[in-house]
What we know:
Number of domains: 1
Largest sheet: none
Number of strands: 0
Order of helices and strands: HH
Helix content: over 70%
Distance between the termini: 121 Å
Low-confidence stretches: none
Mean pLDDT: 86
Amino acid sequence: MSTKSLFYGVLIGSVIVGMSVLLTAPTSGKDFRRTLKNNQKMLSSTLSQVVTEGKLLTNQVSKSTSLAMNTITKVSSDVKQSLNQWKHEIENNQKNIQKELLTIENALEKLEKAVTTK
């Protein structure tokens, strides 16, 4: 197939398709252009709204992230402080328990010696 005949075939096919579209169109050219223009305006408006809402969402996410970071930092600091305070409060009890365990161990050793010597 030669390039020339392919070109003519495409050209004639395009003309036939174009004419059939024009003849079978449900609306006139003016109505179609008006509808197209209205659809373009609606699409433009919708895209503009999406961009605006996207910017608002980005700002809100940024603010929420900042607030969350501040809250996490504060909670972390409070937990560390509470943990240190708790460690300090139980320090005396820990020492007392260790003393009592040593006393019990000593008593068990004496008991073992007493049992083995009898």
